[in-house]
Design a protein that fits this description.
This protein has three domains: 299 residues, ATPase, nucleotide binding domain (Nucleotidyltransferase, domain 5), CATH 3.30.420; 80 residues, Actin, Chain A, domain 4; 108 residues, Substrate Binding Domain Of DNAk, Chain A, domain 1, CATH 2.60.34.10. Strand 20 and strand 21 form a beta hairpin. Helix 3 packs across helix 4 and helix 4 packs parallel to helix 11. It is built from twelve helices and 28 strands. The strands form seven sheets. Strands 1, 2, 3, 4, 11 and 12 form a six-stranded mixed sheet that branches. It is of the alpha+beta class and 520 residues long.
């Protein structure tokens, strides 16, 4: 039997933690690093490099180096988010056999969970070296607003990496668990989680070691990457204005500018201004090298990124409305994710909630600590009562009806695990089968929601329309994973939906891609 760890699988960085001697602790690699870039660099043949070494390759081989792949997790190829991602990266994005987005590198196509599995395997290896024992189980965190396909894809990545995924836990919930575990707190807590690729807000009620999520809301395409893009576009415009050279199609130059933007953003967390110097980006018509030399201060940063910050508070408004709470009813505010180190964001959050956020937690590490606590709870053989988590489903679930509408069956922010069902009737005369199409989202129109999959209940008795009743039941487990069942009320015949057949990997493909099966 191997050990169980907690892993924060982040867009920009990942962290692994283990519960030992009565408390969780972050595990470091041989060089003492506790935060590891979620970057995978592909070499020649089957060789890959992950983490800090891969991050170094990003500047000179961006077309072979995958960063922020989490933003593609569980996405359909034709989605707006994938189209936006395509404009931000030097590597290719291809359409998979199940309409899913996949990564194209050096002429080869990789499933997104396969790429993320390299990061998970790297975390597993760091943990095994730090603990001196085999690690084969993990609690893995995801953004609270991840839909079912994104959660399924995360589980697939764990399986490919050779890890048993004990549970999927929402990042803000994990952070609240680390903050309040065994501290006897009784309060309402808001977790403002702004990471590299996503934004979540979760409102929780903590009563000693009982953690109840009251509501959650989020944006799975709003994070530090977008802040970097805003700064990069400003730097590109500045360069073009002063030199007349347009670099929007030169991937190496763009990557260097993006690196400089990210570095300046970090510097502005502690300094009033940051000098930006990027030499030898290109050559002008006379062959002379072109350098980017400029200065960015906090006021300019504020002007460039304030629209993004304001978008986060629209999401916070929604979460508070769902919870029927006001900002002043929140007792504590936790800041999670590397972006919350920016003073600009800390000030904005403090102004919104009218209180200073907690400053005694590490925004980069707190999520992994909470995941480690949950891993301990799930594997502790002593049977001692420990932390209890009551989470919610972040998005509504329903089925498509006549006219292209969605009939909601489980509303958003319903406590999970849960089960609910509704009875529907045949829409045409002599209908002998019904196709159940499942959607996740808040719109009344099916086309504006996330399509999760469909399946058919057949062999219905031919009868006049409306005579045959079909009960459709949704169930959601503690991981937020959805199962759907359709039952002919007349005969008792049932069928289930296999979600992985819609746009994630099939079970056979996951097993085929497993690193331990391939001998990695």
């Amino acid at each position: 039997m191997g050990l169980a760890v907690g892993i924060d699988l982040g867009t920009s960085n990942s962290v692994v933690a283990y519960y030992q001697n009565g408390e969780p602790r972050i595990l470091a690699d041989a060089k003492g690093n506790t935060v590891h870039p979620s970057v995978v660099a592909f070499g020649y043949g089957e060789s890959t490099v992950v983490g800090h070494r891969a991050r170094q390759q990003l500047t000179y081989a961006p077309e072979n180096t995958i960063a922020s792949v989490k933003r593609l997790m569980g996405r359909r190829f034709d989605s707006v988010e994938v189209e936006r991602m395509r404009a931000m990266v030097a590597w290719g994005i291809a359409e998979g056999p199940n309409l899913d987005a996949r990564v194209r590198i050096q002429g080869k196509v990789y499933a997104v969970p396969e790429v993320s599995a390299h990061v998970l395997r790297h975390m597993k290896q760091i943990a095994e070296e730090a603990l001196g024992e085999v690690v084969d189980k993990a609690v893995i965190t995801v953004p609270a607003y991840f839909n079912d396909q994104q959660r399924q894809a995360t589980r697939d990545a764990a399986t490919i990496a050779g890890l048993e995924c004990l549970r999927i836990i929402n990042e803000p919930t994990a952070a609240a668990l680390a903050y309040g575990y065994r501290k006897g707190k009784r309060q309402h807590v808001a977790v403002y989680d702004l990471g590299g690729g996503t934004f979540d807000i979760s409102l929780l009620r903590i009563d000693d070691d009982f953690f109840e999520v009251v509501s959650t809301a989020g944006d799975t395409f709003l994070g530090g990457d977008d802040f970097d893009t805003a700064l990069s576009e400003h730097l590109l415009a500045t360069l073009q204005q002063t030199t007349g050279v347009e670099l929007s199609t030169r991937h190496v130059a763009l990557t260097k500018i993006r690196e400089a933007a990210e570095k300046a953003k970090r510097e502005l967390s502690s300094a009033a201004s940051a000098e930006i110097r990027v030499p030898n980006l290109a050559r002008d018509e006379s062959g002379q090298p072109i350098h980017l030399i400029t200065t960015l201060d906090r006021s300019m940063l504020s002007r460039l990124v304030m629209p993004l910050i304001q978008r986060t508070f629209l999401v916070v408004d929604d979460a508070l409305k769902q919870a029927r709470l006001t900002a002043t009813q929140i007792d504590e505010v936790l800041l999670v994710g590397g972006m919350t180190r920016l003073p600009l964001i800390r000030e904005a959050v403090g102004h919104y909630f009218r209180r200073k956020a907690q400053d005694n937690i590490n925004p980069d590490e707190v999520v992994a600590l909470g995941a480690a606590i949950q891993a301990h709870t799930l594997t502790d053989t002593a049977g001692i009562a420990d932390a209890v988590l009551l989470d919610v489903t972040p998005q509504s679930l329903g089925v498509r009806t006549v006219g292209g509408f969605v009939e909601q069956i489980i509303p958003r922010n319903t406590p999970i695990p849960t089960q609910a069902g509704k009875v529907f009737h045949t829409a045409t005369d002599n209908q002998d089968q019904v196709r159940i199409q499942v959607f996740q989202g808040e719109s009344r129109m099916a086309e504006d929601n996330d399509f999760l999959g469909d399946f058919v209940l057949d062999n219905l008795r031919p009868a006049p329309r409306g005579e045959i009743a079909i009960r459709i039941t949704f169930s959601i487990d503690t991981d937020g994973i959805v199962a759907v069942r359709a039952r002919d009320e007349e005969t008792g015949q049932e069928t289930d939906m296999l979600l992985e057949a819609s746009s994630n990997l099939s079970r056979d493909e996951v097993q085929r891609l497993r690193f331990d099966e391939l001998g990695f």
